[in-house]
Amino acid sequence: MEPGGGSSRGMIRRVAEKAAVTPLTIGESCGVFGVFAPGEEAARLAYFGLFALQHRGQESAGIATSDGNAITVYKDLGLVAQVFDEGKLASLTGDMAIGHTRYSTTGSTVWANSQPTYRDLGDASIALSHNGNLTNTSVLGQQFDRSGASTDSELMTQALAEAIEAGASLPKAIATVAPEFEGAFTLAIMDRKTLVGIRDPMGFRPLCLGALGEGWVIASETAALDIIGAKFVREVSPGEMVVITSDGVESHFPFAAAQPQMCVFEFVYFARPDSRLYGEEIHSARRRMGERLAEQSHVDVDIVVPVPESGIPGAQGYAARAGIPYIDGLVKNRYIGRTFINPSQSMRDLGVRMKLNAMPGELGGRRVVLVDDSIVRGSTTRQLVQMVREAGATEIHLRILSPPYRWPCFYGMDTGDRSTLLAAGKEVADIAEYLAVDSLAYLELDGLLAATGAPADGFCTACLSGNYPTDVPMTADKFLLERS
């Protein structure tokens, strides 16, 4: 449903959505959720699961359900609480569901790119939710019918649909087609009676399995299990496909074995602090990052201040290790979310002030260590530093809980053009001058990996190191993402 429009566009019930053939766009870090819960209202469970994953995507939200006879889909632009109400959830009947929250690039926030995607195949209809980004869309576009596929997620759905129309069951279609996909893809897929969760062989994006009474849940993060009272069972392994039916859960491995390469930014930024990855609590890992940063780059200051929210655990760790008071000197507007009302140019120029506000009473006359998780393009950080300076800080020493972000990501982050990355080709001193800080220090890569508590060789660090674990579609000059 478009803003201000009727509800018919948001609802699909065994009706194929036909879109024009347009260039494939890039998928970003999103949240996926799936639940099979006999006797329960799956849509309501999916709603709360997506609510817990709202941080992974704020552009659109959607839920598909099955009552055993037909698949019903509702999706729209906006936050989960904006898209769904009691009436919408009541229309999504059945005890099986998948859901999605989407994060997209600027300019591609359109209803047609929201998920779950859907294909009307009669009794074999399917719906799909995707987190990640494929790197071989050009090849796939030539191999499979691209009509109606405007994103890599749509293209995967079409590829599965072709295999199912040729006579394969959903699990068999996935096992046959998915090895053709390259890049990052964590998927929740369903037909009328089967729920499937799958991770690409390198496991770039997370997925976990939980138990809920007689049912089962799959989700991007363990926090989504907690909110609906599901019990964490285990993480879905890289390259694993879990098939959930009324008979229980089956595990299959349709891919050749590969070295796990989870995105290290799941620990730095994406995942909620109360989630667990690689068996490690994210909050504790971020606190350890701060401790290591204090050891590596101590400076004589009065207070340590976090940039909310992901900078908070790191700042706590930094302050504890350095023996410097921790102060909440920045207040976050927790209700800003996403809006379809565009601010005026003057408001856009203020930028960060819509999300954060500084407290002169805490910052005035003090030397400050400001702790943040990362710097990507730098414009927001520069405004933030100016705000802290205007609040009266006499010195600002910026400490970053990850190494310089110098290389584009091809596996699910919106950083495809290296020319937009602040640290690309720059020395730390040059970055500090641009940001107008008294000093700047980044956590070294070895320290970051050690702080996670997980095996160092289990992470993709391409955006920090330039070492890509797969072939990537980029040009030699600007490292632009391929757009087929």
Structural class: alpha+beta
Strand order of the largest sheet: 1-4-3-5-2-11-10-12
CATH topology of the largest domain: Glutamine Phosphoribosylpyrophosphate, subunit 1, domain 1
Q: Give unreliable regions as ranges.
A: 1-28, 475-484
Question: Could you provide a short overview of the structure?
Answer:
The chain has helices spanning 42-52, 80-83, 86-91, 137-143, 152-165, 170-177, 223-227, 265-270, 282-296, 312-322, 345-350, 360-363, 379-390, 428-435, 445-452, 462-465; strands at 11-13, 31-36, 60-66, 71-77, 96-102, 117-119, 126-134, 183-190, 195-199, 208-212, 215-219, 231-235, 241-245, 248-252, 262-263, 276-277, 280-281, 303-306, 330-332, 356-358, 367-372, 395-400, 439-442, 459-460. With 484 residues, it is an alpha+beta fold. It has two domains: 11-258, Aminohydrolase, N-terminal nucleophile (Ntn) domain (Glutamine Phosphoribosylpyrophosphate, subunit 1, domain 1); 283-455, 3-Layer(aba) Sandwich (Rossmann fold).
